[in-house]
Structures are given as structure tokens and as C-alpha cells.
Design brief:
- The chain contains five helices and eight strands.
- It has about 170 residues and is an alpha/beta fold.
- The strands form three sheets. The chain has a four-stranded mixed sheet, covered by helices on one side. A two-stranded antiparallel sheet has the order 5-6.
Length: about 170
């Protein structure tokens, strides 16, 4: 797995620590999971400043609903791209890590359940309740609508910790 930053101001080592911490909390280090580790290693994670955002991923309908000034991300085939506020500030870090955690949840579920289809429980940005959809997509959005997040705490130094909230998929990654 490659994590690449094109940002200039954020603490890249800290963000990488948060990313890896979230990912590896979902793997249970058994022989059965060995292929999942191999599949995950094929992924590339790109953390970019909002200024690098390109509308190319979205159709015209979605362009009216999005703001290019808000942190967000997209998860594709073996690739995550997150567009974040490139500002070293705890409030922006909270927002950025929430967005990154959202995309990481899509990735983890795509590694665990690449072909599993489910029915969406709630309307979201892309589809309506009841629509059949890939679990790795619908489950993340449904859980956020339901408020199913968990607190992730990262030790920054001997006396300092930082906490952020990310979608809770820990019961699915087994």
C-alpha cells in the first residue's frame, strides 16, 4: 500500500499514523486473512489539497450539490483520493480525518466483501433507500446516516493524544 501526500502544510507523519491505525484496527491477523493483506497492499491512497480537486469524477447533476471548498474523497479501483484542507489546525484535522476514515471504510469493505450486494437502508448522495448496491458502498453511507461512528485516539507524544471520529465498521471486518 502506498500513501502519497501532495499537501504542504499538514503533519504528514501524523496523518499517516492515523490512516494506518484506522486500517489495521480492522484486520485480525489470522491465516484466513492473509489474502486480504495482499489485496490491501495493492491500494494507493492519495491525500491532496482541495486546490487539486477535479470535477471530472462527478456528473453535472452532482456538481450542483457539491462544494469544492469542503473536504471529501472518492474511492475507486485500488485507489483512494482525498481532497482535504491543507491547514495545520486541529479543527480542520478533525474534518479531514473524518473524510479520510470514510474512504478507508469503503476500501476495507471492498477488500473484505468485493462482490457482496445489499439493499441500501437510507437515501444518500447517490441512491435511494431500497436500492440494491455493493455493500462496500452502501454500508458506509448507511452507518453514517445512523450515526454509527467510533472514537479513534492516536498518541501524538508522551503527554498528548488526538481523537477523531470515523465510521464504525469494526463488526464487519472479521
Amino acid at each position: 500500500m502506498k500513501i502519497e501526500f501532495s499537501t504542504k502544510n499538514i503533519d504528514k507523519a501524523f496523518y499517516e499514523k492515523c490512516i494506518l491505525n484506522y486500517i489495521y484496527q480492522h484486520y485480525h491477523y489470522s491465516k484466513d486473512n492473509q489474502q486480504k493483506y495482499v489485496d490491501q497492499d495493492k491500494w494507493n491512497i492519495y491525500i491532496k489539497p482541495l486546490e487539486e480537486f477535479s470535477w471530472g469524477f462527478y456528473d453535472n447533476y452532482r456538481k450542483d450539490e457539491l462544494s469544492s471548498n469542503m473536504a471529501h474523497g472518492v474511492t475507486g479501483m485500488n485507489e483512494i483520493i482525498c481532497y482535504i484542507h491543507d491547514i495545520k489546525n486541529d479543527f480542520y484535522t478533525l474534518q479531514n480525518l473524518s473524510v479520510i476514515g470514510h474512504e478507508l471504510a469503503h476500501m476495507i469493505l471492498k477488500v473484505y466483501y468485493p462482490n457482496f450486494i445489499t439493499r441500501q437502508r437510507h437515501d444518500d448522495f447517490y441512491t435511494k433507500k431500497g436500492t440494491q448496491r455493493q455493500l462496500f458502498s452502501s454500508e458506509v453511507h448507511d452507518r453514517l446516516t445512523e450515526g454509527r461512528t467510533r472514537k479513534i485516539t492516536i498518541k501524538q507524544s508522551l503527554f498528548k493524544k488526538f481523537s477523531f471520529y470515523a465510521v464504525d465498521i469494526s463488526d464487519l471486518a472479521v
